């Protein structure tokens, strides 16, 4: 019986987590700047403009300072 309860609890948590993720996606999809950044990132990837972690952090820091 404990295993059944654990499974139900796990399923409930997963459904709640999925609903939260869907709400997060809906919220983030409304952020035009974020959507543009994702689109630009995809274009960069398609065109071979891929950065390593250090390059990416340097770029983000520079953009943060500029804003």
Structure description:
With 67 residues, the protein is mostly helical. The chain is built from 3 helices and no strands. The chain has helices at 2-29, 32-46, 53-66. The longest helix is centred in the N-terminal third of the chain and has 28 residues, at 2-29. It is elongated and about 50 Å long. The model has no long low-confidence stretch (mean pLDDT 76).
Give the number of helices: 3
Main sheet: strands, sense, barrel: none
Could you state the order of secondary-structure elements as H and E?
HHH
Radius of gyration: 19 Å
Quantity of strands, as a count: 0
Q: Taking all residues together, what is the mean pLDDT?
A: 76
The coarse overall form would be elongated
Straight-line distance between termini = 57 Å
What percentage of the residues does DSSP assign to strands (E)?
under 5%
Q: Which structural class do you get from the secondary structure elements? A: mainly alpha
Topology:
Elements: H1 2-29, H2 32-46, H3 53-66
Salient structural properties:
elongated; 0% strand
